[in-house]
Amino acid sequence: MYRKPLISVCVANFNGMDVINDCLYSTINQDIDEQAIEIIVHDDASTDESAAYIKDNFPHIQLLESDHNVGFCVANNRMAAMARGEFILLLNNDAALYPDALTTLYHTAQNTLRPTILSLPQYEFETGELIDRGSLLDPFLNPTPNKNPDRDDVAMVMGACLWIPKALWDELGGFPEWFGSIGEDLYLCCRARLAGHLVRVCNQSGYKHKVGASFGGGKINKGRLSTAMKRRALSERNKTYVMLISYPWQLALLIFIPHLLLLHVEGLVLSLVKWNKNLWREIYAPLLGSLWQERDRLWSTRKEVQQKRAITLVNWLKPFHWLPWKITMAIKHGLPEVK
């Protein structure tokens, strides 16, 4: 007998042959009625035969195959558009759920009185070390890992494991496709909070994550922060976009100009210390041009978001951590390796 699924698990895949088994089997082997779940995979024009592998080995999974690479935002928007579940779980192909993950998320959602974005504690895949329980934000919108087990209200959760009611996803408009990849989770969580919705982390269960496997970098390697040039460029650009869109005007006036100045100083220092002009040319120099190019879209999106704002400035700032996270990381790990 046909029954509409309760949960739609959406997995964005690009060249995930080395990680996709762990991801999909962790979803299939949940301690929940299998008829309550549908699994959708969007393959973003992989070149490693992972799409064919999924088709051959997981025939019950709905596979969307893109004929060209469209990026993380478009991939997830496509899956969400065809999702039939009451709830959507966005899951990275390099992440694997604990067996009780979906049950925990569902029960938490049921016990929350209003639409809420949820996630789970995130653990390093190989070592099992806790990475975060969602994130707070510093003034420049750098995620600051929350490791406090007594704190479940956070500023954002990672798109690697993001649970959201389908109705709320539709209300917020999904991911901004012009972001491409990186920062879309920050945008969605900021937009949800401004509209008066909650962003929380369950205090039980969890997921394992091979951080950086799907996009390169973004992790600590032998005591040093390692990232990819493309990832860093998209991160700095899209965080700046989110700041312009989401910050209440009082905060925007206070933070935005210092943010731009400090970012360009950072770029010059990093380029000189590393003696690599490509760092400046590919990460920092294009920022002002991209802001100008997207000025109309940024302004119209800001107007839309701010008109629907249902939260005070004080409440907006509650999950912020005021010491800039980059300073903390530089003191602890030195300047990042950018490849």
UniProtKB/TrEMBL annotation:
Residues 8-131, 152-270 form the Glycosyltransferase 2-like domain. Keywords: Glycosyltransferase, Membrane, Transferase, Transmembrane, Transmembrane helix. The chain crosses the membrane at residues 247-273. GO terms for molecular function: glycosyltransferase activity. InterPro entries: Glyco_trans_2-like, Nucleotide-diphossugar_trans. Coiled coil: none annotated. SUPFAM superfamilies: Nucleotide-diphospho-sugar transferases (SSF53448). Gene3D superfamilies: Spore Coat Polysaccharide Biosynthesis Protein SpsA, Chain A. Belongs to the glycosyltransferase 2 family. This is Glycosyl transferase. The lineage of its organism: Bacteria, Pseudomonadati, Pseudomonadota, Gammaproteobacteria, sulfur-oxidizing symbionts.
